[in-house]
Write the structure tokens for this entry.
Amino acid sequence: MADKFIRKLQNTLKLSGFVVRREFCNLICEKFLSEGINIEDSDTFENCIKNLCERLEKQCVNDKSIEKEHIEQAIEGCFHSGYDLHETVFSTINAFDYPTTLYDPDRKLYLLASTKPTFLSSANSKAQLFIDRYLSVLHRTQRNFKNKLAEQDKLTLQTVDFLLTLSHKTLDKTLILGCLTQVTEGKYYLEDPTGLVQLDLTHARYHGGFFAENCFVLVNGFYEDKVLSVSTMVLPPGEEYKDSRPFFGNVNYFGGLSNTPLRESKRLKEYLVKNPHNMILFFSDVWLDHPLIFEKLEMLFNGMHASPPVAFVFMGNFMSESHGSENIAIFKKLFKQMGELISRYPILVNNSQFIFVPGMSDPCTPHIVPRLSLPKYVVEEMLKCVPNAIFLTNPSKLMQGTLYRPQKEEIGESLTRTIVSQGHLSPLSLNALTVHWNFDYTLRLYPLPHLIVVGDKAESYQGSYKGCQLVNPGSFCDSGFQFKCYIPYSDTLDDCVL
């Protein structure tokens, strides 16, 4: 009976386009029998095989040989109502573990890259960094122009070389998408892969956001004598998650062992329904050398002991001043002291995650992003007290340097609109914030998440655009010990203070 079923199974899978070795067919047979499935019934058999093929297709194994792990994941999905074996309700992923995706223009989909990036970048990587950013913004803008504008309001999107072929042109319902660059001191240009054109910004009007060097913008105006006199400059349109997601197919763009992005996790959705009041606390600039810091943290832990949050997320800098590597022993001592404080609250240790993200002045790597996690030497004593503490990399800390800056009361919404429209955590000149060329993709925000937390030294602010919230908790030690509480079920943020 088993041999007959294995031959039938192998032939049926082959007709569906999957060449599965006999040993794996034998594994499938054993799993079906162990689950009490009646494989002799033809309807049951067809339903099981159909479900199995759907699971294999979702793993994007078209161009790869089917291995044991593919079979096991497909079977797991069949027997557990769509749950993934590695699906979780809480996951932390370091920047250097993010998956790399590449756009396939023929299939119009993002696919996982076959090779992993390295720290030693080639000379072409710097140019490719901006080309990839440009193409991502271009695809979103083209879709927006095509889908969202009424016929009578249709705008035309053009490249820079469109202007270079003309002696003069008034751009009425035509917009040029490009990157703001400063080729020579005091002179701004608009650049894309087709060329660059000088800009005259004397009479330019700016709408909705920060406009900094290396930002991508849409402009119109009057072109003459190889200069584009800009009348209007706007940021590219953002794109909601539901509109971006189809272009990633079945790829887990988020990262982790699961085949499903955590945002679409079935377990997570059920968990949030059952635990609607669970929260995550965010703190920025937690200076461990502040004279009141441990007193305030003790007050916090006492208050949270009866109702532990899902996670405490502590963002650096972890000292008020950058002392350099010569005082790293002080750094180590402070983290040991924090570990000893946390260990006095066993309920929190067992039920909450303690997450630490380094700031730009913390001792890990030079002033470059993504930043490595805090050195093991610094945190080893703390880990003895709190073994489940998590030390993550830092994808970015946004710095501001712009040619146009909104009013103070507009900063939250403007910064949110800028980051979302650029689809990048740091859409600035590499002189303002150095980026590992091969790892620029770790700073991209595409598709959009529910929440972006920026550990900025500025006053607390928050904004929302295209279904994505951005928040800066404010400096914990420098702003009266304030922090933010995020409730994932309702996707809401609350202001807190000690």
Q: What stands out?
A: The two ends are 70 Å apart (CA to CA).
